[in-house]
Every structure is written in C-alpha cells, then in structure tokens.
Amino acid sequence: MTNNAVETSATSGAPDPATARRNRVAIVLLLAAVFVVFLNETTMSVAVPEIMEDLRISPSQGQWLTTAFALTLAVVIPVTGFLLERLTTRTVFITAMTLFSAGTLIAATAPGFGVLVAGRVVQASGTGIMMPLLMTTVLTLVPLSDRGRIMGRISIVMSVAPAIGPAVSGLVLQLTAWRGLFWVMLPIALLMLVVGIARVPNVSEPRKVPLDVLSVILSAFGFSGVVFGLSNLGLAAEGKAMMPSWIPLVIGGVGLALFIWRQLVLQRRDAALLDLRTFRARSFTVSILFFVILMAVLFGVVILFPIYLERGLAIDTLVIGLTLLPGGLVMGLLGPLVGRLYDRYGPAPLVLPGSIVMSAAIWAMTFFGPDTQLWFVLVTHVVLSLALGFLFTPIFTTATSALPPHLYSHGSATIGTVQQVAGAAGTAAFIALLAVGTAAAGAPTAETATPEQVIAGAHLAFIGGAVLSLFAIVAAFFVRKPVAPELTDEQLEARPAMH
Fold first, then answer.
1. Which of the residues 78, 152, 196, 251 has the least number of beta carbons within 10 Å of its own beta carbon?
2. Predicted pLDDT at 366
3. Distance CA 152, CA 209 (A)
4. At what angle do helices 282-307 and 408-440 cross, to 10 degrees?
5. Separation of CA 302 from chain center
6. CA 73 to CA 129: how far, in whole Å?
7. Is the CB of residue 224 less than 8 Å from the CB of residue 252?
8. pLDDT tens digits, 210-219
9. Which residues contact 341 (CB under 8 A, 6 or more apart)?
10. What single DSSP character describes residue 310?
11. Cβ proximity of 89 and 22 under 8 Å
C-alpha cells in the first residue's frame, strides 16, 4: 500500500471488502493490546503498600514503582512519532508487546526492589508505544465520517481498564502475593504477542526519516524532568520529596525549551522528531488545551478519591475499588453511543453539557465530609464519569481529525505526551492542596494527619479541582468539528515529497 493510498482511505470512500476485513482485524487486535497494558498500569497502584512491606522499603522508594513508569512513558512517547513513520505497523506492535511481556516477566521474578523497578521500566517502554500506535492506525484507516464511532471504542479501553484495575488488583492480592499480579498478566501479554505475530497486518508503508539524536536527548531531559519535577512537587507537599522540586523542573524546562526550538528548526525540512506544526490546526490546539484540563482534573480526582475514602472514612481498599468500578464502566459503555452522536451532530452538543455536568459533580465533591454516606460518593463519581464519557471521545476525535494524514503519528505522540505531563501536573496540584489543607487543619505531617484533618485537606483539593473545571466550560465554547484537515501544504511551508 502506498502512502497516497493510505491517505485516500482515511479521507474518502469505503475500502474493498478484503481491505475492510484487514482493517477491522488490525483495530480489534490493537484495542485488545491497549486494554491489557492499560489494565496493568492501574493494578499496580493498589499493590504498592504490600510491595513496600514485603521488600522492606520506604515510601519514597516505593514511589519509584509509579514514578519510574511515568518517567519512561515521558521519554518513550515523544519518540513514537519517528517509530511509526520508520517501521511497519506489525513491527511496532511486536516490539511493543515483546517489551511489555519481557518487563512483566522481569517484575514477576524480581529478587529485589531494583530489578522490580527495572521490570516496570521495560513494561513502560512497551506501554508507551501502544496508544500512539492505535491512534495512528485508526486515523490512517478510518474515514472522517466514521471516526467518532471508532474513537468511542477507544474510550471503552481507556475507561474500563482503569476502572476494573483496582478491583482486579484487590481480588488478586486477597488470593496471593503481589507477584501474582504479574503472573496473571504475563500469559495474557504473551497471548497478545503470539496473536499479533500471526494476525496483525501492515496497514501503512514506512518511509525513511532521519532520527535526530539531539532531539531524543533533549526530549528525554525535557519531558522526564518536567514529569519528575511535578511528581516530586506533590511528594514535597507531603514531606516525602526525593530532592528539591526546582532542580528537575529547571532541568526539564530548559531541556523542553531547547527541544521545542530544535523541532521548529527541523520541521522546516520535514525532519522533526515531534512535528509541532500540528498546533497550527486550530481545532487541534483548542482540543489539546481542553484535554490538558480534563487530564489534570481526572488524575487529581483519581488520586484524591482513594485517599479521602481510605484515610478519611476508613473504608477497605477492596470496597474502594468496587465503589469506583461503576463510574469507569459507565464511562466506557458510553463510548460507542457518544461516538455515533459525534459523527452525526459534532462535538458542540456533547462537550458543553459534559463540561457543565463535570464541573457540577466536582463542586458536589466539595461537600464531602466525615459523615458523608458511601452512596453519595458513589453517585457523585458515576455522574463525573458520565460527564467525562461525553468529553473524551469528542475531544480526541476533533483534535486528530484536524490534521492531514502525514501528521497523524506526530499528533498521536503529542496527545500521549500531553497526557503524561497534564496528569503529573494534576496529581501534583491536588496532592499539594491536600497537604496544605491538612497542615492548615493542624496536622504536623501528612503521615500523622487524623481522619478529620485528611478530610479538611481533601476539601481544599476538591475546591481547587472545581475551580479548574470552570475553565473547561469556557473551552467547550471553542470546540468545533473539522469537516476536513485544517492544514494545507502551503501552511506547512511546502512539505517535501515523501519517497
């Protein structure tokens, strides 16, 4: 298949039956693989306390199980734009699932904490490739008129896997030790790898693009420095910082500035590691700004809910997982419906009501207190998830549909990178507000805070999230459905022809 053929299939009529069948196989297998890696990412959060106790490590060391994973994603995702252009779909899939499977095996058999962290890093290397691969493949194969429907299916994966992850983790940990999480995940990952080797087709034709090593280095320092600095900022608010937060933030900020400058220079000859010309598309830029707010709110609420329920209301971790499960399932099950509504009516009738309901749900959370009933927490979380279900599919689809086909891989990598940075920022902000609130309530440290002091801190953090959610309502007025890619070759400064 030539690049011209790919671009035509993504923007015009339906493919022939054989091609349509091949496309369906590719998308279904990629959806299944992404579900597996997303499920793995969310099962670990519940297991960290047990791992700390078993390996006799401190909380600051235990934090590296999630921090190292996030840092690896921040380094890997910006490079995926190059990988998706340089390698075939099948090669990228096999590489990603091999890395993920190898990392899972390393973690399952780890004799100590250091090897366990190494296994998580290898896992993250595969995880970071999968989502951009799925997004780019969908954009390449699915016409503009049908993208909402397929993006709705992607939202199922993004919602249901994180929703059931804590519940699955809690169940496994009740039956076996923490290594059981990896042993359960390993055969599933290997099965996906074997099926992928046998069935994943090549749906794009790679082209020779240069790899700018300096861009890779600057990207690693920039994005990982910012993500680590933001994560460390949240830990500093709890008195658990590994180092002064300004050090990684300054290093990351300088690295990020140099990385952006380098891409602006390289993209003039179509050689950027992460092509920033995507931001010249108005709908892409507006959607990314909206996405930043959504991810900051989502990650903040996700980290805050278990803290409030466990330390404020003394609720068991398994019950917490089951409490959060219905919301995630609702968000996922809404995906196909929202996708069809997007294809028919566009984003405006979805994102404006969705952002208003999201804000209302978070404002309702500011009333959580020591006497709040679990049913009210459950209902509030379901309403929030319902609102987010009406937001993610339209935002993803609007952002990516604004791009021409040759920028699909860069747009997908940009979305993945922004997700990591915005998630780290949201987590840091909510944890910082939690710490400030507990301190104002009289707690000398976050670790020694009483349930009442934890609830006071959570109250302040929820207020911060509610104020942030108001910006999403404003952003919703500017989201419009692209009827065609918004960038032309002239706007991209006469992009060189691909060979």
1. 251
2. 93
3. 32
4. 40
5. 13
6. 9
7. yes
8. 788 898 899 8
9. 148, 349, 350
10. I
11. no
Structure tokens at 223: 């994005």
10: Cα within 13 Å, side-chain hemisphere? 27
Which residues, at least 6 apart from 486, have a Cβ–Cβ distance to it below 8 Å? 280, 281, 282, 283, 284, 402, 403
Residue 104 phi, psi dihedral angles, 5° rounding: -65, -40
pLDDT at 361: 94
For residues 210 and 447, what is the distance between their CA atoms, to the nearest angstrom? Answer: 50
Retrieve residue 120's tokens: 């998580």
246-291, pLDDT tens digit by residue? 888 899 999 999 999 999 998 888 888 888 889 988 899 999 999 8
Give Cα separations from 28 to 21, 35, 200, 315, 417 (angstroms).
11, 11, 10, 38, 24
Which amino acid does the sequence have at 446?
A: A
**Mean predicted confidence (pLDDT) in 305-327:** 81
The pLDDT value given to residue 131: 83
Q: What pLDDT digit, counting tens, does each position of 456-467 carry?
A: 988 999 999 999
One-letter amino acid identity for 346? G
**346: alpha, beta or left, given left = phi > 0 and alpha = psi -120 to 50?**
left
Return the amino acid letter for 186: L
CA–CA dist 459, 360 (Å, integer):
15
Distance CA 42, CA 29 (A): 21
What average pLDDT does the segment 426-433 reach? 81
Tokens (6 digits) for 148: 């909402």
- Mean pLDDT over the full length of the chain: 82
Largest interatomic CA distance in the chain: 68
3-state helix, strand, coil in the chain (%, to 5): 80, 0, 20
Tally the C-alpha atoms within 13 A of residue 489's C-alpha that lie toward its C-beta: 7
Three-state DSSP at 49 gives helix
Percentage of residues of the chain with pLDDT beyond 90: 24
Cα–Cα distance, 182 to 116 (Å, whole number): 11
Estimate the crossing angle of helix 89-108 against helix 179-199, to 10 degrees.
160
Output the pLDDT for position 442. 82
C-alpha 166/C-alpha 172 separation (Å) is: 10
Rounded Cα gap, residues 367 and 360, in angstroms: 12
Q: Where are the alpha helices (DSSP H) in 209-281?
A: 213-237, 246-266
If you count DSSP H runs as helices and E runs as strands, how many of each does the chain have, helices first?
A: 18, 0
Query: Locate tokens 């734009």: which residue?
Result: 81
Angle, helices 374-389 vs 348-365, to 10°: value is 160
State the pLDDT at residue 492.
Answer: 57
Q: Quick one: pLDDT band at residue 1, thresholds 50, 70, 90?
A: very low
Q: Which residue has the tokens 């419009």?
A: 480
What's the distance, Cα to Cα, between the start and end of the chain in Å? 13
How far is residue 44's CA from residue 178's CA, in Å, rounded to a whole number?
A: 9
Which comes out higher in pLDDT, residue 235 or 66? 66
